[in-house]
Amino acid sequence: MTALDAGPLGGRGSAPVRARLAFPTVDEVSRHCLGEREPETVHIEVQLPGRPDSRRLREAFHRALLLHPGALVRQAPHRWYRRFYEWELTGTPDVEPVTFAGTGPDALARARARALALCPPLYRSPPVRLEVIAPDATRSVLLLTLHHTALDAPAGLRILATTAALYSGRSTATRQPARVRPTPPGPHRHGVAPRSGWARPARLAPGPAARAGTAANGMLLLELPLPPRPAAPDAVAPWTVNDRLLVAAALMAVRWNAARGRAYRPVRITMPVDDRSPDMTMPIGNGTRLVEVPMTPEDRSDVRLLMARRPDPAAVTRLLHTTARRTRALKSQPRAPLGAGAALLTAPLLPVGVRGALTRRVRRAVAPWTSTLLLSNIGRVPYPMDFGDAGRAGAVWFSAPARMPRGLSLAVASTGGRLQVTLRWSRDLLDDAAGAALARLFEECLFLTYGSGSAP
Description:
The chain has 2 domains: 19-168, Chloramphenicol acetyltransferase-like domain (Chloramphenicol Acetyltransferase), CATH 3.30.559.10; 217-379 and 403-450, 2-Layer Sandwich (Chloramphenicol Acetyltransferase), CATH 3.30.559. The protein is 31% helix and 20% strand. The longest helix is centred in the last third of the chain and has 20 residues, at 313-332. By secondary structure, it is of the alpha+beta class. It contains 11 helices and 14 strands. The protein has helices spanning 3-10, 25-32, 54-67, 105-117, 153-168, 241-259, 302-306, 313-332, 340-345, 352-365, 432-450, and strands at residues 19-22, 41-48, 73-75, 86-89, 98-103, 128-134, 140-147, 217-225, 268-274, 288-294, 373-380, 395-399, 408-415, 418-426. It is globular.
């Protein structure tokens, strides 16, 4: 029995069990691949201009959990010969999830380090931790840490939005209407991309490794301007902000590698797609499906133009057009959350312990074909995040795990007319100085796309 298994077998929490649910595919694959070296955490950070009342905030968060009972879960005790892992829905928390983590300029840095290094345990309900930090005399930061085996970032944001509504006395159903993106004019080609067969995608060239004993992940938060909007109010842009982010991330990867003497290889980016409605009916858990976006230009001669010292704007524009067509096609195609292979691996035909060993072996075998990086963009946060006397959120950041062999994730949200970008990397790949250099390169590459028309 590993240390990871010791909790579920060591005893139950204090809350009663209301029901049991088998782990869905995403949860099971994540549970199979957990490792103490690289914690599977999602971090969400909400910055407020004022300070919330501690008692009211704690009560509001507890009430929000009751309204979203899918968050009040713990992993049931298990043995290797069982057919599946199970969640126990507890209805009430086993542990107090809200803590007030102190004041001062170093308190936020320490809380961020905990969010990257320490997972809330799966064997206590809920597998989330909310820390409230006061970095100076007036501001406060809410830092929510989720165990990614149980919950994803959109689910965490929904819980925080419900908390804000309850704290401020507003309706929990308040939400901004979703925007419907019109289809751009002109010819529309539905093909996703030529298949690359077994070609291995680009892997980010490693920088200096972090010293032994440091946290598994490093992280840097950026705030950048939104791309310019179309000049005419009713103009339809041929691509979205998400398409710009994909192109910028691909340019970042190929230019980073070229500067370190790596030959060009095609970039593939894993992109979560969330089809859930962000209202109170939203299922709480892991609800995204992953698609891979090939970032190769349709014209191979554009590779040289994109890798030039000053990338050709026309080549960047062509890549934006190609990426927009591919992402529209990928989003419209129905697909299992992690693909048919993961669905087969998690079919309850073998004991869960055998399936776990097989999943880990497959993961190691396909590591060379893992995508270059993960880009998770939730767009404009669809909630007001208004905490009444503590103020409305001025910025919202989140980050996704950056486990090897990929070792790199980009997470983007938008509030207040700005992009909040989080770059998170494995310290087996980069140290903090190299991570900061990569973040600067991403910013430069994003601005390259700003010169190619405008997006909604």
